[in-house]
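Extended Data, panel c. Modelled sequence:
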Amino acid sequence: MRAIKVLVVFVLPLIVACAELDDGRVWHKPTNSDLLNVIRASRCQYYAPDKVYFKFDSSDLVPISKGILREQADYLRCFGYGQTLLIEGHADERGTREYNLALGLRRAAAVRDYLIALGVAPDRVSIVSYGKERPAVSRSDEEAWSQNRRAVSLLVKNAP
């Protein structure tokens, strides 16, 4: 099955790109950028989730969050040219304002550091902490708190 996928994704577009016309002229010679575009299109998704969630009082990335960040890094490599990423760190309402601002900053930094380790250029990622000041859910229960312990990745267009 993998051999068929490789054939369809990589070889078939090159064969089509080199098709001869009836009079013997070559319709298009494939270039390195053609091959790169085929590879890029086969690996890229047009959507990546924008949030990762954390356990209580933690800035450690859980496995599902790492998977989401891999998708974000792939998206940035494929479609994010001319854009930077702003990562917002958030906390739930428990704890002091100062503690939650520091916790939000550690969460945003953990996301930034993981994206950089995946190959995203450091100058394309910035961080900010909102602590408990911008909750996603304004209730005071465990379900709401779990949705507020998050980091949100926002794409920012750079000026031309």
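Confidence is low (pLDDT under 50) at residues 3-30, 32-41. This feature is highlighted in the accompanying rendering.
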